[in-house]
């Protein structure tokens, strides 16, 4: 079949140009006579790729010199556990802002390794809104404040970086990193599972300020310590070389498109288009998220009659769309609009939604 | 250029048929209209792939029903730390057999999480031999005995599974899994980084006996507990889907070649061919490993004159060989002969070695 209109929440659509390059390189990368997967990570070719990929990300995001960039494994979830091991003493405490399923999971995993305090939550609202900043009960002696700038499941996003004073701000940006320009200097640590805006699953990109790497970790193996990974350029052991390579191609593609400013404008237009279709459907579709916190990356919506859900999924699939089923935790539909989802794809989706509403309204 | 003769130690050669299939599937896998990297791991297509891949591995290795198969991340090194967290109490102890750089690293990582006792080592011999079984000082109350059936750097391999009584045997098989038939029932836990005989780096395959999953883990996050991964079919979070897919293609290729018996015979022939070239070189090449423990997977050799090392590497590269440089820890050369390295490739190597010796002897 042709390429589908892919609105998956993650693993998600990759830029077609990236896939075509990877396809061309698959048996002979960079004149090596081998796939990038078949070469030593310590060889000259891969070391150059690794360094160039980091450089490109630094340029794209404007990462200051006092931050290190790590290419790790384990998904964001593993780092829910590893972050407290590295940034807090075992009997210390950290503050968590809970605005959805993923930030709640961050707390429950971290709680095995630090006193994880929920300093604010919108759980009572079923995560349809953000807790107002002035209600957060932050502890100035906490080791860090953790939050999730974009919650993938409901589609709830902070559009500004919260001010948390001198306590380092730690952000799980798995689902909105590279989606718009960002002031990295506001953060102590940013981490992201790759499978949305970066590349394939199995890779985690982490951006961490030098001084946090100087904190004494809990008594854990070397392989779990971020400072050791930094000292060894993320090659304390064999990294996910394929993921690193694909991330490099994706960063190159973003740069070629005009960088994060262009991504941010496109994502704003894409999400505005889908929200407009929802809001303009006379109640056929509904999005329940607080207006000012609607996500630019994940647009969730329900149909006025849940009996139509199965029909919507079936017809949309037949029309060449994939990944529109909402997360089982909240049901309904969800359109994820990561960087690789094109404006024409979004126009097709909105057209389908309007047609569907006309036929079933 | 053409495909190189790839003797890399890992990441290493993959079967060309696997790469060609991956190339064909790259933009549209399995009629999905998307790459396997672009699809949800919880979607029907990937779930089927995951289950079929596990089934195939079970068939290939004859894995008994009371073992679980996990598809994890982090490389073997992360599991050096995670295995004690899961199989031993914090104040418990485990025995380690140290026969090379990797088993030594297993001890030093584990030591942060358990009392890791070196029950036997051949370090005094610079890891050229295996410590005789009757010299091992095993503790019958140890939580497990850990060993490394094949040491990649020196090329030192156990050709029989050691008897360690009732204490569960844990094996890091990163560099020889699938290289020959194996009696899985002799082991408590087998684990392997994928980047030699399984697939690309970034994936770890673990085979673990049910009763070990029932042991109480140390107080660690859920994501680090093997029992939780087993309960969730290795999808506690997003797995490395590309690695899992490539592993499936590799297992299929091995099955198509005739399975592990055929792999074992081929690998025996391949390594015998290279060792014969070394031993028959009148001292031009030398392999220092105890004869009975020579590896079928990694053949290390030194040249009689180290001044020729650079020439050997340069000429071999010009002749289309890659990955022949030995590990920096011991110098010299190393030819890794994993399943994907064909017999014709080995014949070419041996021919080159003879020609080189004739020209520089």
CATH homologous superfamily name of the largest domain in chain A?
Answer: Type I PLP-dependent aspartate aminotransferase-like (Major domain)
Q: In CATH's first tier, which class of the largest domain in chain A applies? A: Alpha Beta
Any idea of the CATH topology of the largest domain in chain A?
Aspartate Aminotransferase, domain 2
Query: How many beta strands in the DSSP annotation of chain A?
Result: 14
CATH architecture of the largest domain in chain A: 3-Layer(aba) Sandwich
What is the end-to-end distance of chain A? Answer: 31 Å
How would you describe this structure to a colleague?
Two copies of one chain form a homodimer. The first copy, chain A, has 361 residues and is an alpha/beta fold. The first copy, chain A, has two domains: 241 residues, Aspartate Aminotransferase, domain 2, CATH 3.40.640.10; 102 residues, Aspartate Aminotransferase, domain 1, CATH 3.90.1150. Chain A is 35% helix and 16% strand. Chain A contains ten helices and 14 strands. Chain A has a seven-stranded mixed β-sheet. A three-stranded antiparallel β-sheet of chain A has the order 11-12-14, with helices on one face. Chain A has a two-stranded parallel ribbon with strand order 1-13. In chain A, β6 and β7 form a beta hairpin. In chain A, α1 packs across α7 and α8 packs parallel to α10. Chain A is globular, with a radius of gyration of 21 Å. The mean pLDDT of chain A is 97. Chains A and B meet through α1, α3, α4 and α7 of A and α1, α3, α4 and α7 of B.
């Amino acid at each position: 079949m042709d390429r589908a209109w892919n609105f998956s929440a993650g693993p998600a659509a990759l830029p077609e140009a990236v896939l075509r390059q990877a396809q061309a390189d698959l048996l002979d990368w960079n004149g090596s006579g081998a796939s990038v997967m078949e070469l030593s990570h310590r060889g000259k070719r891969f070391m150059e790729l690794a360094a160039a990929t980091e450089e490109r990300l630094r340029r794209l995001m404007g990462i200051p010199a006092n931050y290190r960039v790590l290419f790790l494994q384990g998904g964001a979830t593993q780092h829910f556990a590893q972050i407290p091991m590295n940034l807090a003493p075992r009997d210390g405490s950290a503050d968590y802002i809970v605005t959805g399923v993923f930030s709640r999971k961050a707390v429950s995993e971290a709680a095995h390794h630090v006193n994880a305090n929920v300093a604010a939550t919108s759980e009572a609202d079923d995560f349809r809104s953000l807790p107002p900043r002035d209600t957060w009960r932050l502890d100035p002696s906490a080791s860090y404040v953790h939050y999730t700038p974009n919650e993938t499941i409901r589609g709830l996003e902070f559009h500004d970086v919260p001010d948390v004073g001198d306590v380092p701000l730690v952000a799980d940006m798995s689902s909105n990193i590279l989606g718009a320009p960002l002031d990295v200097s506001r953060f102590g640590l940013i981490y992201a599972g790759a499978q949305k805006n970066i590349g394939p699953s199995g890779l985690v990109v982490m951006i961490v300020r030098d001084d946090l790497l100087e904190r004494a970790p809990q008594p854990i193996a070397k392989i779990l310590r971020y400072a050791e990974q930094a000292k060894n350029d993320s090659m304390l052991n064999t990294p996910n070389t394929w993921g690193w390579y694909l991330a490099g191609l994706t960063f190159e593609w973003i740069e070629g498109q005009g960088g994060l400013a262009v991504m941010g404008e496109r994502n704003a237009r894409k999400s505005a288009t889908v929200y407009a279709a929802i809001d303009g459907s006379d109640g056929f579709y509904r999005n329940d998220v607080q207006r000012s916190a609607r996500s630019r990356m994940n647009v969730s919506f329900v149909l006025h009659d849940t009996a139509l859900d199965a029909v919507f999924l079936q017809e949309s699939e037949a029309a060449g769309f994939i990944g529109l089923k909402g997360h089982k935790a909240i049901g309904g539909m969800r359109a994820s609009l990561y960087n690789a989802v094109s404006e024409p794809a979004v126009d097709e989706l909105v057209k389908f939604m309007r047609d569907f509403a006309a036929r079933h309204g």
